Amino acid sequence: MKTAQDIIIKPIITENSMMAQQFKKYTFKVAKNTNKIEIAKAVEELFGVKVAKVNTVSVKGRFKRMGRSEGYKPDWKKAIVTLTEDSKTIEFFEGMM
């Protein structure tokens, strides 16, 4: 059984994700083998909010080179979580805008 901490790995803090917060959309890096229902339940459990919908994106790892050695960063999954209108904001992101 996966816990909510296993599903939600870390928040993604970029310029675009910060601007999406005014529309109650929050972006997280999540475990690759989770589905939208598990992500919604984990966000509701961790932050005490109501989730309206979840969009997921599978991100391909970038090509990296260090001197002569080269390879790819690992693939990962991104979830964009939209909260309901009557739901409160997530306090974790409050001071970042």
Description:
Keywords: Ribonucleoprotein, Ribosomal protein, RNA-binding, rRNA-binding. Belongs to the universal ribosomal protein uL23 family. This is Large ribosomal subunit protein uL23. One of the early assembly proteins it binds 23S rRNA. One of the proteins that surrounds the polypeptide exit tunnel on the outside of the ribosome. Forms the main docking site for trigger factor binding to the ribosome. It holds the Pfam family Ribosomal_L23. The chain is α+β, with helices and mostly antiparallel strands and 97 residues long. It has one domain (4-85): RRM (RNA recognition motif) domain (Alpha-Beta Plaits), CATH 3.30.70.330. It is built from three helices and six strands; from the N terminus they run αβαβαββββ. It has helices at 4-7, 15-19, 36-47, and strands at residues 8-11, 25-30, 51-59, 63-66, 69-72, 76-83. Strands 1-2-6-3 form a four-stranded antiparallel sheet. The longest helix has 12 residues, at 36-47. The protein is globular, with a radius of gyration of 15 Å. The mean pLDDT is 92.
